Structure formats: C-alpha cells, structure tokens
Amino acid sequence: xxxxxxxxxxxxxxxxxxxxxxxxxxxxxxxxxxxxxxxxxxxxxxxxxxxxxxxxxxxxxxxxxxxxxxxxxxxxxxxxxxxxxxxxxxxxxxxxxxxxxxxxxxxxxxxxxxxxxxxxxxxxxxxxxxxxxxxxxxxxxxxxxxxxxxxxxxxxxxxxxxxxxxxxxxxxxxxxxxxxxxxxxxxxxxxx
Length: 192
Fold this sequence. Notes:
- With about 190 residues, the chain is an alpha+beta fold.
- Helix content is about 40%, strand content about 20%.
- The chain has seven helices and ten strands.
- The protein has helices spanning about 35-45, 65-70, 75-80, 85-100, 145-155, 160-170, 175-185, and strands at about 10-15, 20, 45-50, 55-60, 60, 105-110, 110-115, 120-125, 125-130, 135.
- The strands form three sheets. It has a four-stranded antiparallel β-sheet with strand order 2-8-7-4, with no helix packed on it. The protein has a four-stranded mixed β-sheet with strand order 5-6-10-9, covered by helices on one side.
- A hairpin with a 4-residue loop joins strand 7 (about 110-115) and strand 8 (about 120-125).
- It is elongated and about 60 Å long.
C-alpha cells in the first residue's frame, strides 16, 4: 500500500496468521489459494510456512490440566465432533479424540515468539501448536481460557464450538455440563 514497486525477490507471503514483515503480499480470499501460492513461488516471492519458523518458547513446563480436562469430557467432545451422526461414528470419534489428546503434550510457558529463520518477520503468540505439542502462555484459569478456545477447537477438529468448549473447560460438575448441552439441543442420552 506504499505505491512502490518491489521485485518479487523482495516480497514474501506467509501462510501463518499474526506475522508482520516488510513487503508482505496479501492475496485475500481466493478459491485456488494453493495454486496461487505456487505461482508466487515461481515468480520468486518468499513463501513462509510452519517449516520456515523457529520457535522461541520461554519457560515451558508440562501442564496436564488441559489434557486431563479434555479426557474427562471425552464423550461430550465426541458428541460435538460427531454432529448428530450415528452411534458408530460417535464411537469412532471418541476413540480418535482420545488418541489425539493423549498424543499431544500441553505446556504452560512464559512467552511464545515465532521468528522466520531469515529474521524478516516475527509474531508474539498466546498459543502455538505443532506436531503433538500445544503451548500456551500463563496459567490455566477461567479468566485466561478464552484465548485458548479457538486453537483448542482447531486441534480437536470442532471448529466454531468455542462456547461449548468454554463450558467444558470451566464447569466442574459433569451433570451441569450435560444439562448445558441438552439445553443447546444435543442428544446426550448415550453419554455416560
């Protein structure tokens, strides 16, 4: 937007949200995004993906709270993920989610900073998930749950269900959680 012309080799495009860098290309919402990215690459534009970043995570400590909380609400998570499909699909989802949650390690940390390896861009994050590791800053309290909801929903494959996940994460009474889901129209009759 500075009305200047730049050589493609001076431009970059990032597939990750939250990064700032000089001479960043914006492509908006287009249908064949991956093909357009390949075209940019052919022109010599630097393309940044998760493989191009270095994680600078300070004070990471394993925290089992999120994992325990998610595993304790596994049938409800499977109910959300199965979206009214049959019992066999629900059972499969339950098993898939259990494996996913157990195969992730959750860390509480002081700060998360992601930097492009060639040092042209960076981003401060409150959460970051990569290859079986989920990092979040601060302590897990009800007041700090909100920034975790979207990334956790993405990890679990239950996008746009942040409100439901919030109830699961902050409510300790399993029957109260079931009542909430019944009020929302979920069929909870098969849940333990």
